[in-house]
Amino acid sequence: MALAGLYRRILPSPPAIEFASQEGKAITVHGSSSGRNRGRIFQTNISFYQTQSEPAYCGLATLAMVLNALAIDPGRTWKGPWRWFDDTMLDCCEPLDKIKSQGITFGKVACLAVCNGAQVEPFRADQSSLDDFRKRVVLCASSEDCHLIVSYNRAVFKQTGTGHFSPIGGYHAGQDMVLILDVARFKYPPHWVPLSLLWDAMNTIDKETGHHRGFMVMSRLQKATSVLYTMSCRHEDWNMVAKYLTEDVPLLLTSENLKNVDDVLCVVIKSAPPSLRDFIKWIAEVRRQDDDSTILSEEEKGRLALKEEVLKQIRETELFKLLTRYLAFESSLCNNVATLAFRDKLADIAANVCCQGAELLTGKIRSSNGLCCKVTNVKFLKADSKEPVTMVSGTVMTDATEQRIDILIPSSQIEPSCLCDFDQNICCGMHPSIGDGLTILIFSLPKDTWLSLREGKLQAEMEGLTSVDDLPTLLQEEVLHLQRQLHFLKTELNISSS
Fold first, then answer.
1. Tens of pLDDT along 172-217?
2. Bridge partners of 191?
3. More confident position, 328 or 98
4. Is the Cβ–Cβ distance between 287 and 305 less than 8 Å?
5. What residues contact 444, with CB distance under 8 A and at least 6 apart?
């Protein structure tokens, strides 16, 4: 016999005041009229208010709502031709199946926001104060470009449940109350609560992590997000890779045996964990194949052109040239190079990007039968440009249904490099390769990484090779975005291990 289930909960009042109640309406009307900008944050957020699609998706739904309120283009389709943030699309930092069963941490929500183009200032309660929180609320209540996400313990409001995420929808200065747009609308309606009590609810310990909850101030990043590459912490070993890049590499560089750039590259690459290949990802341009049309839209052409320009700019750097030369001619010095398993053959690229397309469209790493794609083939389309566009076509398995997809692969036409001599099946003259991924990753290491080198001349040489200041604007923005991602992952790593 099926269980009857639950239909909502009665909102404990006090301390909360339901938004749609007479008292709640009076607070809203007075709050919106008591100052020129007092109700603006509410007006912006209410247009994008949504309900979380799973009981544990409060963090994802909150973030999707704020990203849409900030008018950030996700750069990928939601349904049909529409690009729109939905909580089922936010899986670059954690697999959805894991979030569905365990929820998501404060740090991973911040990381997700950065991944998707937001400027984020996270504050745990033990790193802030009630007065500072109030100042941030007042600031965001007076701006269309500033939004607040809170992580709090429901029990402080006499509500059922414990940890929860939701956005702040408004502020009433006279009564010092904030409006929580609860994304679990199936449970509780939006409600006003005293700001000081919300602070108490944030100033609690998350038993899963052992650390304080808190709040995030989010705004739209003025510069572009990453175009071609991103860092992923969806796999289980992300913390091992993040630790290696931010902690282990500087320690390795203290060796007295490092005399030149090749020595540095060797020690960085040969000591890398195999899961490094899952940490740095290039972003495929995925579209559903609703018909047999091979015509590219102007937007697709534009995004593909940007990816190809980033790829071209990477390959014009001195670091890329040195790195590919090292990989080709001195790979025997680093036996661990092969274990990174970067697949550069076009057939392998086709299989990998088809799986990536499956992940982007379904949120799953593998289907129930263990496969991503049923059929994979490579096409070369003639576009307006002189060179044909490489497109991988495949059939994604989504449980019992099939969906045909196309994935556009960026390419960069450059002179054949030494990697072509290293392996005739691997030529970095076109598609993203091991050299491209490692180059952008080394550029993204913390600035103080090279201070560990004992030789002053070598330290200066590595700082010059990895300097972001003189990079072309597009590549510079790409690197800076990856540096922000790595910074948030390092912060989350330090908190998790403390």
1. 988 999 999 999 999 999 999 999 999 999 999 998 888 899 999 9
2. 18, 180
3. 98
4. no
5. 231, 479, 482, 483, 486
Q: Which residues, including other chains, have CB under 8 Å from residue 211's CB and lie 6 or more apart?
A: 106, 124, 205, 495, 498
Which residues, in sequence order, are CB contacts of 5 under 8 Å at separation 6+?
none
Length of the chain: 498
Q: What SS3 state is found at 298?
A: helix
- Asked if 146 contacts 140 with a C-beta cutoff of 8 angstroms, the reply is yes
Q: Tens of pLDDT along 370-429? A: 445 555 555 666 555 556 676 666 666 555 566 666 667 777 655 444 444 334 334 444
Amino acid found at 34: S
Are 429 and 416 in contact, with CB atoms under 8 Å apart? yes
How would DSSP label each residue in 386-407?
Answer: SSPEEEEEEEEEETTEEEEEEE
**Cβ proximity of 69 and 47 under 8 Å:** yes
d(CA 157, CA 160): 9
Peptide bond into 15 cis (omega under 30): yes
pLDDT recorded at residue 225: 59
**β-strand partners of 153:** 163
Cβ 428 vs Cβ 436: under 8 Å: yes
| Residue 123 CB contacts under 8 Å (≥ 6 apart), including other chains | 132, 133, 136, 214, 215, 216, 217
Burial 77-93 (b: 16+ CB within 10 A, else e): beeeeeeebbbbbbbbb
Q: Which residues are catalytic?
A: 58, 164, 182
Q: Output the CA–CA distances (angstroms, integers) from residue 469 to 448, 464, 477, in the order listed.
A: 15, 10, 10
Q: What pLDDT shows up at residue 37?
A: 46
* CA–CA gap between residue 378 and residue 354 (Å, rounded): 11
Beta strand 389-398 with 401-409 is antiparallel
Give the residue ranges of DSSP H helices in 230-345.
238-243, 249-252, 261-270, 276-279, 298-315, 318-329
Taking residues 335-346, report their average pLDDT: 46
